[in-house]
Amino acid sequence: MFGLLDHIRTRLLRRRRRERISLAALFRQFQQVLELNNRILTAIASMHDKLGGDYIFDVQYLRSSKQFIVDTVRELIDAFDAMAPGRYPDLYSSFRDIRHKLESELERRPVLPDVMAMPFSDIRLKDMDAAGAKSTRLVMIAKASAGTVPSGFAVTTSAYRLFMELNDIEDEILRLEGAWRNGEMTVQEASGKIRSRILAGSIPPRVRRAMGRELETLRRGAGEGSLRLSVRSSAWGEDGDLSFAGQYDSFLNVRPEDLHDAYRKVLASTYSPAAMEYRREYDFKPNEVFMAVSVQAMVEARTSGVVYSLSPVRRGESGIEIAATWGLGSPVVSGEVEVDRFVVSREPEHALLLQSVAHKPTAMRPGPEGSVTTEDVDEPLRDAPSLSPEEVRLLADTAIRLEQYFKKPQDIEFAFDQTGALIVLQSRPLRIEASDDPQSPALSDVLKGYPVLLSGEGDVAQQGVASGPVFVAWEGRDLEEFPVGAVLVAHLSSPQYAAVLPKASGVVTDIGSPLGHMATIAREYRVPALLNASRATLVLKEGDVVTLDAEQKTVYQGLVRELRMHDFMSDRMEETYEYRLLRRMLKLIEPLYLVDPEENNFTPQGCRTLHDIARFIHEKAVEILTEIPTTSGASEACPGGRLELPVPMDLVVLDIGGGLTDDCAGEGDKPSRRRTIRPEQVRSETLRAFIDGVTLEGVWQSNPVPVDFSSFMSSMTRTFSADSAGVKRMGQNLAVVSDRYLHLSLKLGYHFTLIDCYRSEDDSRNSVQFRFAGGVTGAVRRSRRARFLSEVLKGFDFSVTVKDDLVVARAKGWMARDLGRLMRILGLLVAYTRQLDVSMVSDSRIFEHCQEFEHIAEEAMGN
To answer: Which of 313, 587, 698, 741 has a 20 to 30 A CA-CA distance from 685?
Structure first.
């Protein structure tokens, strides 16, 4: 069916290339593009909100949401194609590819990247489906500087699928699993047959070559020493919200020449009886089973063990539990030997609460020919602690940092190597079961003993419980000072705080909305967040320890351990199949890879998500619209003229519907000969606000400024793309305006400013974008002006990206609710920065201009 529709659409595209669209139709299609784009962004936000833990949803919700957003994006492409007939046919190809992948996910045929092996250095959080949770979490630990991890690589889930396809095993697995689930054979029988088929399989040549390349890199890194490997499972779901602890096999001290055999054995362990039962218990579907394998350089451990960042058994105590022994740690996690036990305080000094030293006559160590052996421990060490007091404190500190980073108590495997360096071998969420002690006091009774600082105020952006010292982000404070585990308290929920959210335990703000940018980031990092709490910065004091219960909109004085424990034991929506499926679907819907229109990937072929398609279309639709002044017949379809202003801005205004008063319609041969428009004839509130800002008395500087010759020649020889400058409209400042939309394209001096503003009937869906680049001076001064713009715009709740002298700022949703205020600020900025780069002779001038502009803005906003 889709093939027939695509064929018809292609025929229509060819016909449209021969047709000329009228300007009146162009304006109508542009308005439809804006409305559809807004509808898509709202749908994306709604789906993302379901990850926050406030909603219960099923597969039918996911199917209907997918269908709505796919249909809307297809309608958007059609509307855009009516504006630019046949110009971007590859948009349909990108759309079909993304649609097919979404359908595959819903049909339980997950989309996996076509890569067979990935070095740890290349793995990112988005690669978890490919590399598996274990490898990805190790990489996250390293990148966050939360611990040292082994070097290595992941053999991907795509390699697993290729292995299964090449050896024709998949259908046999489905048959045998079905027989087991139906009671026709035992799990041991089904498991044995499946594992035998896997162990007899051959590794595909692509996988062999990829493993060989990464193995050679590890060899080079090992230097002169002989390389040994730890080959471990890294399956879907493993070491995530479900631990799969002990369900899959790992192999230590593997010789490089034995890697292929170890790889097959790990794949076979995917279908061990215990793993099969575990997956059935947690409703893993057959097509959700994918095994990546983590290949790590073997750590020659002096001491190994396990750390629980929170005791799973000591209900009334706040302790970190450590178990350790000499040599490798396998006997510790398997419970085969007596181990040294340490319980230490979670408080920063990590006082030793309990120590029990076991008799340790033997230790597991790497064997000379691979595998591992059991050796006798030297007599003096058998009854000595395997960890020094300093090592115990270092482990405790690392456990707290990992818990804060991953937002949950952690089950950590560690090793101290022969040099005494601490290596984190893995870290996974620690599952803590609820206590059934009938003597345990009710939580509500416990909470009565803690003073309440805030209650019943604010909007929940992300549920959960957080505790830690208060960090008040007053204006101008250096966020580099933010300590791991602190509770961020701020006046506004500004996007500038997104950078510290990975380190924050919680967030409370005076002003903000669950629809804002920072709220989205808080949900991504699962940081409990209470926004719009009114009095937060007045009540919560710097350095005081508090506990935030976001769901109950309450902040308690002090550390409420019972509340944290209750939160840790709560059932998690993210453990369900539907939640996992939503996360995978959103990877094809939500991420924005097309950010900068000047990048080479800003093409229809570069669209990797539905959000990318919407972004590309919006950008190109605006570009088409701003070509109107050079279009024959523009004056007949579009009233407007040159705006009369008290500053030499030479701004031409084109009204595409409701932006000017009715008496502005008139005849004219060319845009340059249009009638003059007076400011009072501007009906658009956003354009009027911009005019108020740009014409504020004393801000626009017209006096000539000295420019050195090298800077002048640099500015003259710079190349500006059609996107940033508008080749067809260089030398002309343009405003395209309607009752809801405003586009400004401004060339002032040697820099270029583009502003897009859209006002919705629902204020929470407003948006404004500001783009600024260029200048008459050298790169250093232009970059200083970019930093100035960035600091100013962040102060007014914009999300800002800076690249060299290019500044891109966006505000949407709640942050853009007061468009008049934002547009007036942008008008002030355009006037203030017109020749600002020339005065940026030192870094200190950045701060001076920020202060001066803040003073001007305060006076302007007060008028």
So the answer is: 698
- Residue 743 CB partners (closer than 8 Å, separation 6+): 622, 625, 626, 734, 735, 736, 737, 754, 755, 756, 757
Sign of the four-CA dihedral 138, 152, 122, 266: negative
pLDDT tens-digit series, residues 485-524: 899 999 877 767 877 887 888 999 887 766 556 776 777 6
Beta carbons within 10 angstroms of residue 817's beta carbon: 19
Tell me how many degrees the CA angle 798-39-597 measures, rounded to the nearest 5.
50
Beta partners for 452?
A: 556
More confident residue, 359 or 662: 359
Dist CA 761 CA 780 (whole Å): 43
For 584-600, write each residue's pLDDT tens digit. 888 899 888 887 777 88
Q: Mapping DSSP to helix (H, G, I), strand (E, B) and coil, where does residue 76 land? A: helix
Give the pLDDT confidence score for residue 495 in this predicted structure: 67
What single letter denotes the amino acid at residue 61?
Answer: Y
Beta bridge partners of 827: none
Question: 67: how many CB neighbours lie within 10 A of its CB?
Answer: 13
Q: Give residue 730's pLDDT band: very low, low, confident or very high (50, 70, 90).
A: very low
Sheet of strand 487-492, all strands in order from the earlier edge strand to the far edge: 452-455, 554-557, 545-549, 465-472, 487-492, 506-511, 529-531, 459-462
Helix (H) or strand (E) holding 757: strand 751-758
Q: Which residues pair with 572 in a beta bridge?
A: none
The residue written with tokens 């208060």 in the block is: 470
Q: Which two tokens stand for residue 265?
A: 């054995």
Segment 258-279, tens digit of pLDDT: 999 999 999 999 898 888 887 7
